[in-house]
Amino acid sequence: MAADKTAYLGRSVERLEDPPLVTGAARFVADISFPGQLHMRVVRSSYAHGEIISIDTSEARLMPGVVAVWTAEDIADIGPVDFRADRAAEGLKPYRQPVLAKGRVRYVGDPVAAVFAEDPYLAEDAAESVVIEVEELPVIVSADDPPGEFAAGRGTEAAVMHHSYGDIDAAFANAERVIALDLRTGRHSGVPMETRGAIGRYDAAKDMLELHGAAKVPHRNQETLVRMLGRDPSRVHVHECHVGGGFGVRGELYPEDILVLVAAMRLGRPVKWIEDRQEHLMCANQGREQHHLARVAVDAEGRILGIDDEFFHDQGGYVRTHGSNVANRTMCTITGPYRVPAFRAVCHFRLTNKTPCATYRAPGRYESTFVRERLMDAIATELGIDPIEVRKRNLIAADEMPYTIAFDEPHVSDMVLDSGDYAGLLDKAAAAFGWEALRVELDRRRADGELVGAGIGMFVEEGGRGPTDGARIAVDANGDVEVITGGASLGQGFETTMAQICAEALGVDYRRVRVIHGHTDLIPYGIGAHATRATVMTGSAVNVAALMVREIAIDAAAEMLQTPADELDINDGTVVRRDGPTGPSVTLGEIARRLAPGAAGPGQGDPGQGNPGLAAEGFFTTKDTVFPYGVHLAVVRIDRGTGQVAVERFMVAYDVGRAVNPMMIEGQLVGGCIQGLGGALYEEFVYDEEGQPMAVTLADYLVPSLREAPDIEVLITEDAPSPLNPLGLKSAGEGGINGVGAAIAGAIGDAIGDPGAVRRLPLTPGRVRDLLRQADAASPGTP
Amino acid sequence: MNGKHDITLTINGQAYAIRVEARRTLADVIREECGQTGTHLGCEHGVCGTCTVIVDGAPVRSCLMFAVQCDGAKIRTVEGLADGEEPHPLQRAFMEHHALQCGFCTPGFLMLAVGVLEREPDIGDEDLLDILSSNLCRCTGYANIVKAVRAAAAQMRRR
Amino acid sequence: MKPAAFEYHAPKTIAEAVALLAEVAPDDGRILAGGQSLVPTMAFRLARPAHLVDINGVDGLDRLYLDGNELSIGACVRHAAFHRPVVDGRLGLLLSSIVRHIAHYPIRQRGTFCGSLAQADPASEWCLTAVTLDGTMTAKSVRGSRTIGAQDFIEGIMTTALADDELLTEARLPIPPDDTRFGFCEFNRIAGGFAVAMVLAAYGLKDGVITRPRLGVGGVEERPRRIPEAEQALEGRSPGAQAFRAASAAAAGAVDPMEDINTSADYRRDLVATLTLRALESAWS
Questions:
Q1: Is the CB of residue C193 less than 8 Å away from at least one CB of chain A?
Q2: At what angle do helices A218-229 and A255-267 cross, to 10 degrees?
Q3: Is the pTM of this model over 0.90?
Q4: Do B66 and C4 lie within an 8 Å CB cutoff?
Q5: Three-state SS at C284
Q6: Residue C222 shares a structural domain with residue C277
Q7: What's the mean pLDDT in A663-686?
Q8: Which of A621, A649, A682 is where one domain is finished?
Q9: What's the domain range around A413?
Q10: What interface predicted TM-score (ipTM) does this complex get?
Q11: Is some CB atom of chain B closer than 8 A to the CB atom of C100?
Q12: Domain-embedded: residue C152
């Protein structure tokens, strides 16, 4: 395709995003101010569950700088925060969150009133003076508890969902062994370094309503806002600023987004809201909290005959924009990379009186991998088979690809694993990690009294789900390239990735490619950046559009240079003869000028033909999902005296299909992995019996620092490019985190000599110390 | 109660004569009254380090000081690191080593590292790691931040 | 998370400071020193003093010096002052090893030794140090000056013997005999995090046996304290595994640990056993 000089796909080039971020020039939402703006402060429930008796805002209204104080009554015409269109689930709609609590409060942090004031300090002063009288109701703090009443005639078990295929009863009836485990994943979340923020602005002159501070899925959010606010699609637009991390949590629509927009219209001034950290830890989406009762049936060789899993999903106080997506992803991915002839999962999707839950990086999959890999370790232990061997016996083989998992339930889409050499990656990872020698070494160290062990987490990721995304590319008169996408940047390097793909296809320097994203008024569609699909979907569309621009340029140059098109190439932004790069040439800028509207284009002679210039719009459509896959390997050492776990080594091996920028992929994998270690060892949103959240500061919610972050060994492979898109792209955003909980759990089990002992994440020192005591009690005489 | 104070902050060599309420934090005043929004707020309770700036030579959390306490102080923020168009060695190193993703924590890490390396150019690696554990990053997993700071430290020593 | 409004005062002398404090104390006036604990508490609006008397500009409070056989630590001496040994011998080394456990470097640039004492957080390293080493505190007010022993000074969780109008101007640590060995061991879940438990051990050796043992435990009960049962288990014994184990068991048995949602009393007791052993071993090695 392009000459080497402009080969950018696969190179670890420096990021285009970086200069403004290292100089302080970047503009995050809190950095943006509009003249005359008001500041919003939300008054939140301090009760986990109760009937609102009264809300007294009289004092707040009289305080200096206060312009308005709203309760639910003031916005009675605005409905609850809607599900995204593609998440519609009729039965869950009654569980959506009102913008301000109506009648009941359902978690500590539930928005009850909103204060609008001239200054954030004054807004907080006024918010403090609002008095909310609540009659407390019974609090449900666990999805294990018997369901209660959500509203009259409506229980807190919002749904019971089923995924199944095969004859599960026969599988268990015919099993050589049946292993049952009781497993829990703790509640944690993305906790990006930038808290949420939103600015609503209404431009009366243009009748335009703007939301600044959007992220992740700007176009989906615009669609929802259009529905919720009853405005024309062209009269509400959302704008992304710099975004300080998302991880699935940020960029969904929340009550505060609606409030600033409605207030901007009704108060006639821009309204700014910047979440504080305490609010973030009480109000932004949390995730992961599930309780699984999982059983696996195996034959005498440890081959899986069936998996049967009943689990309880703690949804928190309301169902947010994703509906039941996380629970669905859990069910779809439990079988992972293994051949499982029969399967049944039943999910009890239950509301509790805690912060609502939704997607967090590798949603449902961190959970399902933990469950599945605990089962694999249990099979290995039960049958005395090496943990790698037991996995190999069950892995789907490369020659079985594509491999279809078809569920009985008609509404559940098939999973079609597109490509992969799972056993090959496991072999490569084990070899790179030195698994065999490591086992010997760990045995020796354990014999010397050390508590050391190794664990494995193997998984299939999913990403790049369609259906369609597009991109517009235009070359200007200087030969600089503008790529307009409906993508979104959360810090993952979206601009650089798109620029590299465009540069490669078009034949220009990637530094001359400017990538636009996150503005719904610049392009009417866009898939955003979620579920690791940006590179696959938007990247493939950019590739298509860039190839179209390339063709237009070469055709024009063919006329300008009087050379057949098939003898031309584009090299560093200049069209040259393939056989004589130093001969006659024409730059892309010259071609753009020639093709500009009004210019006398080649072969046209007549200005004003309405040429769009050197530009094209390209689309990529797929109904399929790509499935990258990975192996995590961990070695841990436990301090017997404290229960503290030290991660001595950790490897992420991951097949990414095709790596656009290996440096950035490694960055995604390492960063995700440390986040996963947080959820495996440190981070947990703990609630007391009254539903009071105990982790509302960063001194209580323990995000790993450098001292908790071991060096991560990374093995990126490109053995199984996806057949589903021209570049073979898969995705990398979630492969670093998916298997961490599983690998750490396995390693800790191995270290204490009872591989099945670990039933719960996170493995805090207190819990590990309890496991050690249990192990000591089970085998007295050990040191 | 709400008496305001006339103070002068010198930020990156420029004097800002402003009138502020005593309760306004240094971070808020740098950002709002002085318009230098490169200093970010990540937690406002001193844990995350995103708001780290250098006050009279010491890297500190600007969310844990009141601006009135800095009347007359010399403050340095990320906006003052580069020498015109020429990035500071640490800024250069952060880009070369992919030490940032979303970049929200980056100004805090830069000011922390600059503050320490200027005071202790020959700081030992263990001490350096201890100090870099002062700030939180949620994207990178830290490895590349460490690489960047080590590389810049070596370069700053050579100068 | 913006602090509530307050009136700000910046005295230049101790006399001015205590006069101001006397005036504003009845109206919820407080001292602002390093502010690294107070300001976050204000940001959460868990504290909302009406007045803050900022002592950072008060002459002479930043003095740190050896006064005879005592180390005098002024009210504005920062944690960071202890990064390098402030006195020759093992005490200076001990303090510089303890200070590394106090939050993080930028916090230590502002936070003060005396501020930690006045805050009296059960997880404070300096409170444990002052109690174990028999430090004394000087409190000044318009009513006069008094000296308070560390064990009496720290009364409970976030509670001290300081009256509302008193300023803690100075803390003093006696310089222990040259042969004193120290061991400090802290457990926290994350670097720079609050101590879940910590132990400071000190002892001398005479004719091959332990003399003047001190064993302080912090972060475990409502305030740090020495554990006489553990000290008795060490006194007159030759240093080594046997004596250390006995002291460790005695300390674990003697404490009445606090409990919270993440940490059971039982677990804290285990930690006391572990940390006591490690502190004693560290002092010996």
A1: yes
A2: 60
A3: yes
A4: no
A5: helix
A6: yes
A7: 97
A8: A621
A9: 290-463+625-778
A10: 0.98
A11: yes
A12: yes
